[in-house]
């Protein structure tokens, strides 16, 4: 017996040694860290963005970054362009949330500069109206831009949907170290889409914006986000979903949602009235799914269904994963607790992320393919994140569903008669196209 | 007579439980790795490997762990156990490095027992029969006991902190437990309050156990480790059985410590 033990010990040591050598060798095949970005040392304010929350026809949050502490932080806005002259804008409002962005030790190591967040709330806006905006921090201005508020009269509109704009690469991932052309190219693609489709009102981001919500990642995310500005200086407002990689305090500092009417602003779940007759419910898979959020969802979905031509839901972790383990606890939790509510309220479309692939499921109801009553789930995340190979054998992505390993963004085109869903690739190619018809609600809603 | 026969039985029983703990973890990892895990995420996202290569290595690791787990249940070999512990450390580290899960920064601490169990078994099989029977009062055996008690304490402490700080998964498990088994639809704020108490109890036990090896405390740790592992299946159904397998050490190791300390007459062996 002792002899056998010695032999086994020796054999195992060899296997372990060779295994470690193998891992060392294979590690060398990985992407090398390359510092290919330089920090912009310009102290001017930057990183302008617009956030839509509950009433995008009437309200918006304008946010930006300064690289130095500033006393006077003001947003000038109006319906006429005013260039860099604050006097030319009809309205002005000071920021309501300002502070120093939290710096983790790794942020300092990576050399991202200290910075400050600023958020201003624009209220009592006119729907379907172009607002021209000039941001000032202590006499320094951000290049003026404009955005368009959402309609409230039920008119046709489009939105963009996609998630996972974080990147891979050497630790600390995507802190300006590794090439991030895919994310930049996706942002350029979105800008092109916006140029071609001026009726896009918002970008529903499915979460996992950066690798973490820390500044070394969000700094570069904001830098890349400036590519979404169109040639005539239009910005596309975001509807914010929080992903599993967005859990640090930096995310809350930089993606402030103002005062939500029915939940805490740090909970990141709310409903958005897209055009007066269509609604988007944003849920948060990173907090309790069966507590207050579930109670709110139980109450909210039926209310919205009765008044909505189109009812959509978005969140980060998928109920119907095309890539990751189907039996993961959080996925099961969504299927057990949220999906039955979606089905009861006959939700039209669900937007998911997290898997790093493209998918469109078959219509699903009660865990089976049901073309009549089923809900289609699209997404899984492709805004520059490395793409995984999905499992094509899973029943819910079989024909007429689909799944692929490809960067993408979804263009959702809403009209009275149909909801057209088009997945567009990094080079502008159409990857998938399908149509949903409005539901016969009296039959479907109990 | 009965006590003597129990003592005779307890040595193979304790070793059997330890082997089972290691096997459970290996089986859990086998299923976990084959479904896609943070290990594959580390290869794919951090090292920049192709998805195919990441999955291949993950599957190879899964089958290797399965073979190792079976070998441990049949005949534990120290080098295999050491390798399993290293794999467990690496896995916990990748979970921490990848992030994206609540409290993933505590991954190494909350995995302390999973990491330590193979090492404990490796130490156990080297102990003389008398030390395996009763907690040794000195020598290397004493250090082995101190080590595994410390690992139990770290695991309990980390989970206690997660409960106290309202881990979202724990909130959902708590809500589900009371709803399914008592019919009480507890509010989220009540569940958080309940978890704060649970967390404080876990932390207190983790500290006390370092100084006072009372068999009752180990028995409680075994019960609580097994119960909280099973809660996952109560909430989410038998499909998440892998979560229970991965937590076999949380149940079996405190149980072994209970038997070990109890056998020796805990007043005699008490204290670090």
Describe the protein.
The complex is a heterodimer of chains A (446) and B (272). With 446 residues, chain A is α+β, with helices and mostly antiparallel strands. Chain A has helices at residues 2-27, 105-109, 181-196, 215-225, 249-254, 292-307, 329-337, 339-344, 441-444, and strands at 46-51, 60-66, 73-78, 91-94, 97-100, 116-122, 130-137, 140-148, 157-162, 200-205, 238-240, 270-273, 278-282, 310-314, 349-352, 358-360, 364-365, 368-369, 376-379, 402-404, 409-414, 419-424, 430-436. Chain A has a 7-stranded mixed beta sheet with strand order 12-13-14-15-19-16-20, with helices on one face. The radius of gyration of chain A is 23 Å and the shape is globular. The mean pLDDT of chain B is 92. With 272 residues, chain B is mainly alpha-helical. Chain B has 14 helices and no strands. At the A-B interface, helix 1 and helix 7 of A face helix 2, helix 3, helix 4, helix 9 and helix 11 of B.
What's a quick, concise take on this entry?
Chain A is built from nine helices and 23 strands.
Distance between the termini of chain B: 31 Å
Q: Indicate the mean pLDDT of chain B.
A: 92
The main β sheet of chain B shows up as: none
- The geometry of chain B reads as globular
Percent range for helical residues of chain A? 10-25%
Sheet with the most strands: spatial strand order of chain A:
12-13-14-15-19-16-20
Stretches with pLDDT under 50, minimum 5 residues of chain B: none
Assembly status: heterodimer
Overall structural class of chain A, as computed from helix and strand content, comes to: alpha+beta
Number of strands of chain B: 0
Amount of beta strand of chain B: under 5%
Order of helices and strands of chain B: HHHHHHHHHHHHHH
Shape of chain A: globular
Largest protein-protein interface: A-B, 45 and 41 residues
Question: What is the gyration radius of chain B calculated from CA atoms?
Answer: 19 Å
């Amino acid at each position: 017996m002792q002899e056998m033990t010695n032999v086994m010990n020796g054999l195992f040591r060899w296997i372990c040694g060779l295994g470690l050598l193998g891992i060392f060798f294979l590690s060398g095949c990985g992407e090398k860290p390359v510092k290919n970005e330089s920090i912009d040392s310009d102290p001017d304010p930057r990183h302008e963005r617009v956030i839509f929350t509950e009433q995008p026809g009437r309200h918006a949050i304008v946010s930006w970054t300064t690289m130095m502490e500033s006393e006077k932080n003001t947003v000038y806005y109006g319906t006429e362009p005013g260039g860099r002259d604050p006097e030319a804008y009809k309205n002005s409002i000071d920021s309501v949330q300002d502070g120093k962005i939290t710096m983790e030790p790794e942020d300092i190591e990576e050399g991202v500069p200290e910075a400050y967040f600023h958020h201003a709330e624009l209220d009592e806006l006119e729907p379907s109206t172009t607002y021209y905006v000039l941001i000032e921090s202590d006499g320094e201005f951000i290049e003026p831009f404009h955005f368009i508020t959402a309609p409230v009269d039920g008119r046709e509109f489009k939105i963009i949907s996609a998630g996972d704009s974080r990147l891979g690469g050497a630790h600390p991932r995507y802190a300006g170290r590794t090439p991030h052309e895919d994310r930049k190219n996706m942002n350029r693609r979105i800008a092109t889409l916006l140029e071609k489709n001026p009726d896009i009102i918002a970008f529903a981001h499915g979460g996992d914006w950066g690798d973490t919500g820390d500044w070394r990642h969000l700094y570069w995310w904001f830098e890349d986000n400036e590519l979404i500005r169109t040639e005539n200086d239009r910005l596309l407002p975001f509807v914010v979903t929080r992903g599993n990689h967005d859990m640090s305090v930096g995310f809350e500092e930089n993606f402030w949602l103002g005062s939500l009417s029915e939940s805490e602003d740090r909970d990141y779940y709310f409903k958005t009235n897209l055009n007066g007759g269509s609604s988007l419910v944003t849920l948060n898979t990173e907090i309790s799914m069966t507590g207050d959020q579930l109670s709110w969802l139980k109450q909210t979905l039926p209310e919205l269904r009765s008044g909505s031509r189109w009812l959509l839901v978005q969140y980060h972790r998928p109920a119907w994963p095309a890539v990751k383990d189907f039996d993961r606890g959080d996925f099961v939790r969504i299927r057990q607790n949220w999906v039955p509510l979606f089905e009861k309220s006959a939700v039209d479309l669900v937007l998911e992320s997290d898997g790093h692939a493209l998918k469109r499921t078959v219509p699903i109801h009660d865990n089976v393919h049901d073309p009549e009553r089923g809900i289609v789930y699209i997404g899984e995340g492709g805004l520059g994140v490395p793409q995984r190979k999905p499992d094509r054998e899973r029943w819910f992505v079989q024909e007429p569903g689909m799944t692929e390993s490809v960067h993408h963004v979804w263009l959702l085109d809403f009209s009275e008669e149909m909801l057209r869903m088009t997945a567009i690739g990094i080079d502008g190619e159409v990857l998938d196209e399908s149509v949903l018809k409005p539901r016969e609600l009296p039959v479907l809603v109990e | 007579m009965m006590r003597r026969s129990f003592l005779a039985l307890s040595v193979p029983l304790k070793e059997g439980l330890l082997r089972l703990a290691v096997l459970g973890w290996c089986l859990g990892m086998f299923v976990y790795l084959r479904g896609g895990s943070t290990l594959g995420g580390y290869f794919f996202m951090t090292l920049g490997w192709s998805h195919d290569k990441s999955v291949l290595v993950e599957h190879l690791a899964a089958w290797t762990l399965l073979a190792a787990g079976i070998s441990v249940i049949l005949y534990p070999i120290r080098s295999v156990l050491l390798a399993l512990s290293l794999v467990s450390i690496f896995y916990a580290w990748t979970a921490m490095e990848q992030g994206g899960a609540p409290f993933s920064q505590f991954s190494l601490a909350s995995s302390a027992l999973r990491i330590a169990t193979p090492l404990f078994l490796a130490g156990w099989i080297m102990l003389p029969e008398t030390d395996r029977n009763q907690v040794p009062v000195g020598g290397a055996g004493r250090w082995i006991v101190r080590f595994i008690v410390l690992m139990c304490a770290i695991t309990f402490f980390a989970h206690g902190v997660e409960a106290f700080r309202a881990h979202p998964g724990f909130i959902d498990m708590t809500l589900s437990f009371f709803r399914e088994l008592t019919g009480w639809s507890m509010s989220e704020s009540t569940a958080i309050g309940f978890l704060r108490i649970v967390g404080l109890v876990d932390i207190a036990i983790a500290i006390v156990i370092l100084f006072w090896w009372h068999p009752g405390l180990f028995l409680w740790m075994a019960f609580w480790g097994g119960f909280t592992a099973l809660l996952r299946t109560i909430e989410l159904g038998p499909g998440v059985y892998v979560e229970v397998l991965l937590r076999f050490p949380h149940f079996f190791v405190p149980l072994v410590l209970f038997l070990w300390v109890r056998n020796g007459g805990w007043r005699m062996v008490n204290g670090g």
